[in-house]
Amino acid sequence: MKKISVKEFYEQKKKDLSLSLITHPNTMQGYITTSFLNRPGLALTGYFDRFDYDRIQIIGETEISYLQSLKEEVLYNNIKEALVYDIPAIIITKGLSIPKQIEFLANEMNIPIFLSRLTTDKLFNSLRIFLQSFFAQSKTIHGTLIDVFGVGILLTGKSGIGKSECALELVERGQRLITDDVVKITSKEDILVGCATNNYGHFMEVRGIGLIDVAKMFGIQAVRINKSIDVQVELMPWKDNMDYERIGLSDNFVEILENKIPIIYLPISPGKNIAVIIEVVAMNHISKLFGYDAAKEYTDKLQEDLKRKTKMRENQIEEKE
Amino acid sequence: MIRKTIKIVNKLGMHARPATMIVKAAVKYRSEFKIIKFDMEINGKSIMGVMTLAAEYGSELELVADGVDEEFLIKEIAEMFASKFGEE
Fold first, then answer.
1. Is residue A166 part of a domain?
2. How many domains does chain A have?
3. DSSP single-letter state for residue B34
4. Are both A235 and A270 inside the same structural domain?
5. Does the beta-carbon distance from A139 to B39 stay under 8 Å?
6. ipTM metric
7. Total structural domains in chain B?
8. What are the backbone angles phi and psi of residue A197, rounded to the nearest 5°?
9. Are residues A115 and A177 in the same domain?
10. Distance, in angstroms, between A205 CA and closest chain B CA?
């Protein structure tokens, strides 16, 4: 299970969420384990059934004004009961000031309280975006990701089959490289996004030469940082008896992180210009998005022609009779 | 398929030279070879892949080999790690 320590979260998001810690620094000991947020609402009144204490608790104007309306002992007791739970962190929005008892109790019970200058709505949004992308499912795979006419093409295949060389040729033809060899794929709301696993830059290994820096060599327009993955192209050595797609009426799909994307098995043999074929794959994908499917168009025309000819033949036979 | 967990024992970690040694050794075999570090899984026959791990001194890696000569592959690679790639 993925988790982020509250300390790390604070370091990373301090600026964006304009956070400041109002409790003692030692209170930042817990971990955030879910992307969900909670407004404690009823918990502050003393109702703890279904209290989602493992989420970050957001306290806004409503909660504060409720707390301020309470008698001192009631407030003390309610807060004390709430803070018994193992809450990762509490965030007060809009830079509101909180009753002193809460701060005191939080320090006692080792629960960090942050103050944010953002409004509750804004904080909710930015926090959700951050947590969702942090907790998004991801995996790394062996392949090369390249943006071809805006289509994210994931090149896969055994090592040494020529993925990097193919990518290099595509770059030379004006396409853009995202990452070579290791692609980190993250699933973000029905789309797969690929990027490099490190921020060293756009390096690539070319057999026989060694490492090259694509951005330095081909210019900044030859690279990009991340890209949605639209089609996977699996390069494989040509085999005589293998059954390759010949017409393209049926699409093959592959599942990555519960997302289905089309996959094309591309046989390669010496002298074949793979880069051009990859460009064709991308353009064909775009045509299909626009509603034009060449394979279907052709086969429809063929069928019409066959129908017409059959009819003509029938007519001829009738005339003879 | 066999798996083996090993630890990086050379002080400099897995820099370019040991990465090259591993890949050169691995490509001699027909088995598929993967190295896993936390949630990162890479192809052990690819130099960029192995270097991407940025495996530092003391970190743990899982070697996974699958194929006809898997035992020999794992044995040779594990020995390389243990011998610290001829370093300190």
1. yes
2. 2
3. E
4. yes
5. yes
6. 0.76
7. 1
8. -85, -15
9. no
10. 7
